[in-house]
């Protein structure tokens, strides 16, 4: 069983089954996918480490793509490993960072993942402390994503991103120039790739859009 949700931001209550009742359905061998801004690899303090240890005791696996509010210095210190066909960072045995531009096979279905996004609040943040320039993808990440899609015949079951493709973003926030490079890349992915459904987050809203797109925040959606 696979459930997808939106931004977590290091909020412990997002793993409270009473406040997020959809979590009650997840059991041994299941997966929860966070569509960016996981936020539990951010402060590097004792409380954060202890909560990661709490997550390590869950019966299911927590997978996350990175968002814009992540500590990339810390994320990139984890060893680069392979899992289910793509590159990952193991934060804990069952807490796994799904990297940009990868294709994974999970429960017999193919997932293309591409994290990253632009922080509209970066003027309130300090570089290297609460903001990192790696929030926006590099050219090599864009290129790797296209290569991996090509290897899979531009055909996957699901796409998980933090940001939205340009045509969808225009329906939500037409004025989004600082992120447009990423949105246009995702639009290219949209145009070239066959997929069943695309899930994204980032904007702290819940909505479905034409063309099989779903924006998530605190709700959880189970896929077929």
TrEMBL record:
One of its GO terms (molecular function) is hydrolase activity. Coiled coil: none annotated. Residues 2-204 form the Calcineurin-like phosphoesterase domain. This is Ser/Thr phosphatase. InterPro entries: Calcineurin-like_PHP (IPR004843), Metallo-depent_PP-like (IPR029052). It comes from the Bacteria. It holds the Pfam family Metallophos. Gene3D superfamilies: 3.60.21.10. It comes from Youngiibacter fragilis 232.1.
């Amino acid at each position: 069983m696979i459930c997808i949700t939106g931004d977590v931001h290091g909020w412990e209550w997002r793993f409270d089954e009473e406040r997020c009742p959809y979590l009650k359905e997840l059991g041994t061998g299941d997966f929860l996918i966070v569509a960016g801004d996981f936020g539990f690899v951010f402060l590097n303090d004792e409380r954060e480490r202890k909560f990661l240890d709490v997550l390590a005791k869950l019966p299911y696996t927590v997978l996350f793509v990175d968002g814009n509010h992540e500590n990339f210095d810390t994320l990139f210190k984890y060893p680069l490993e392979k899992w289910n066909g793509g590159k990952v960072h193991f934060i804990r045995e069952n807490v796994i960072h799904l990297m940009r531009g990868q294709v994974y096979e999970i429960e017999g279905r193919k997932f293309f993942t591409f994290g990253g996004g632009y922080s509209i609040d970066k003027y309130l943040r300090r570089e290297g402390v609460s903001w990192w320039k790696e929030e926006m993808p590099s050219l090599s990440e864009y290129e790797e994503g296209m290569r991996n899609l090509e290897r899979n015949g531009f055909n996957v079951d699901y796409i998980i991103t933090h940001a939205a493709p340009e045509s969808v973003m225009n329906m939500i926030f037409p004025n989004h120039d600082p992120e447009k490079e990423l949105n246009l890349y995702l639009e290219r992915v949209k145009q070239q790739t066959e997929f069943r459904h695309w899930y994204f987050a980032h904007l702290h809203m819940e909505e479905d859009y034409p063309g099989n797109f779903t924006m998530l925040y605190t709700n959880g959606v189970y896929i077929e």
